[in-house]
Amino acid sequence: MTTNQITIYTDGSSRGNPGPGGYGTLLMWGDKVKELSQGFRKTTNNRMELWAVIAGLEQLKRTDLPIVIYSDSQYVVNAIEKGWLNGWIANNFKGGKKNPDLWRKYYELSRPFRIRFVWVKGHADNPYNNRCDELATRAADGRDLLVDYGYEAGG
After folding, report:
1. Strand order, beta sheet including 115-119
2. 83 CB-near residues (< 8 Å, 6+ apart)
3. Which positions are catalytic?
4. What is the CATH classification number for the domain harbouring 129?
């Protein structure tokens, strides 16, 4: 691993959509790896995919290094890389765009960073993505699940 960038792998899981869900995140810098995961009692897969990204960004202290985020969620990757989020923010999520609470949170967190998203095929041969999937599904199946207030209040 290189120390001139921060690498983040993310995945989300939902047992039913909606249903119990969780996210898994790997933060990598040099030879350091940190794993994050959390489960929620009722949520959606897309929300967990986005929560995984947010959870990773919330851990970062440095803003001077580029960040590459790998995700198997085309929803998340395309929203950023194709500029959809900028339009959603500009028109205040008109038209019923989902998850505005999490998108706004991501948008604010992302501002000081230089972030590039890369889509990876899920459930394939990428060991980092597979580890995030393990973390996410274990969190979704866990006990003491948190309330996803944004989802349960209507997002």
Report:
1. 32-43, 19-29, 6-14, 67-71, 115-119
2. none
3. 11-12, 49, 72, 123, 133
4. 3.30.420.10
- Point out which residues pair with 39 in neighbouring strands: 22
Cα–Cα distance measured from residue 153 to residue 155, given in angstroms and rounded to the nearest whole number: 6
Residue 72: predicted pLDDT:
96
d(CA 38, CA 48) in angstroms, rounded, equals 9
> What is the pLDDT at residue 123?
80
User: Which secondary-structure segment (H or E) carries 104?
Assistant: helix 100-110
Q: What pLDDT, on the 0 to 100 scale, is given for residue 1?
A: 60
Range of 64's domain?
A: 6-152
DSSP assignment letter at 114: -
pLDDT at 2: 62
Count structural domains, the chain. 1
Quote the tokens at residue 39.
């489960």
Counting as low any pLDDT under 50, the low residues of the chain are none
CA distance 129 to 147: 25
